[in-house]
Structure formats: C-alpha cells, structure tokens
Amino acid sequence: MAGQAPVTPRFEGVIFDLYGTLVPEFRRDDFYEAVRAMAVCLGADPRAFRRAWDATAIGRQTGAFPDMEANVRAIAADLGSTPADAAVSEALAIRAEMYDRYFHPRPGALETLAELKARGYPVALVSMCAPDTPALWRACALAPFIDVEVFSSEVGLRKPDAAIYRFATERLGVAPERCLYCGDGAYGELTGAEAVGMRAVLILDQSVDQSAALRPEGEVWTGATVADLRDLLDRLPPLT
Fold first, then answer.
1. Spatial distance between the Cα atoms of 236 and 240, rounded to a whole number of angstroms
2. pTM (predicted TM-score)
C-alpha cells in the first residue's frame, strides 16, 4: 500500500558453527581411532595418550599450542618420551587424513551461504577448533561466502563464553539481537548464543546418527530446529 513503511527484517546477520553444521561432524569412533593410531606411531600407550589428548583439548582450542606438532610433542613429553621427527610426521598424517575425509560442505551448505550473500546478509563463522582447522577452512569452497571468521584457537575464546559471540557480532557490525545463530549444539553453543541476545537454531539432520557423532559438551535443546540448512532461508527474507 502506498505510504506504508516497509517491513523490517527480523535478522540482519547470520552466524554459523562449523563442525556438525557447515561440514560434517566426526564419528566418535573414527576420531578416537585416529588418536589411537597416532599413539601407536609415537610409541605411546594408547590409553595414556588418549587421556592426555583429552586433557589438552582446551589448550588446543584456545591457542596454547601454535600447531598440532607442538601439541603432539607436548603430550609425548608428558608421557616421558621424545619421538623421532619421522614418527611425529606419521602421527600428524593420520590426523590429516581423517580431517580430509570429513572436511567438506554438508548438503545445502554451499547453496545456503550463496543465497544469504545474494540476499545481502553479512555472515560469520564461529568455530571451536584446534590450530589445524583455520588453514583447512581457508582452502575450502565455503570460505569465500563468509565475511567474518572466528576460530577459538586463534582468538583464545571458547563457546559458550559470551565474549566469543560478541567478538563475532562486533566484527560483523550487527547487534546480537539482530543475528540468527545456527549450530549442532556442541559446547552449549545454542544457549550461549541466546544468552547474549541472538536467536539460535539447532541443525538436526535425521539421516545422521547423532549417538555416534563426536559432539563435545552437547546440550539438550528444546528451541527452534531445522533438518537442512536450506530451511533457514525461510526465516531470512532479502535485506535489500
């Protein structure tokens, strides 16, 4: 109707999680089989190595180790060994091979990100990750569609700390209350996002066996849910 003010979109920015959201989450068995195989390469007791691996997770995610080699060598030292360079390289290759198998766009990810850009939305990525993830991300097909990338291993912040979400929204230039957050619910990320004012949506693909997925610090979620990333587009009309 002439003279009527245009409807203001509810959201002005979108923030995505990475693992389990834009790319598949690891199967827990696959992930820990790689950890076991790394231990064997290094000549370490697999059970002791796994305990040390889990104990260094927060450090891995928040910049305590500049790279995965430093993390592996620190674990080996704590277990009383100094592995040869060749053994360390072989162990890291096992991890890299596993990541290569999983690090690809999940169904709908490319289409969703491309359409959001076409609709004028600034888009951010907030990922809990080890120091080998940023390079993988920057070489993947999804990266060009993201305006702001926040990796815990680079910024030293973890989900669900409010600071990591605010860091992303400030760089995005959108108030938290105007952002839609989508993730798989690991690390209490959805309640964390809503605690700073965002609206959060769980991605829950029924074709994925959630009980077999590596989903650290998962949360019980009773809020909004989508089965496919493309379903988010119904909530996000063009900004321009």
1. 11
2. 0.92
Cα–Cα distance, 111 to 93 (Å, whole number): 31
C-alpha 147/C-alpha 142 separation (Å) is 11
Domain boundaries, the chain: 13-24+104-235, 28-102
Please check whether residue 169 is in contact with residue 178, taking contact to mean a CB–CB distance below 8 angstroms: no
Tokens of 238: 């063009």
Instruction: Write out pLDDT tens, residues 198-238.
Output: 999 999 987 777 777 778 777 889 999 999 999 999 999 99
Between the CA of residue 83 and those of 40, 41, 71, 78, 88, what are the distances in Å? 11, 9, 13, 12, 7
CATH code for the structural domain at 13-24+104-235: 3.40.50.1000
3-class secondary-structure state, position 54: helix
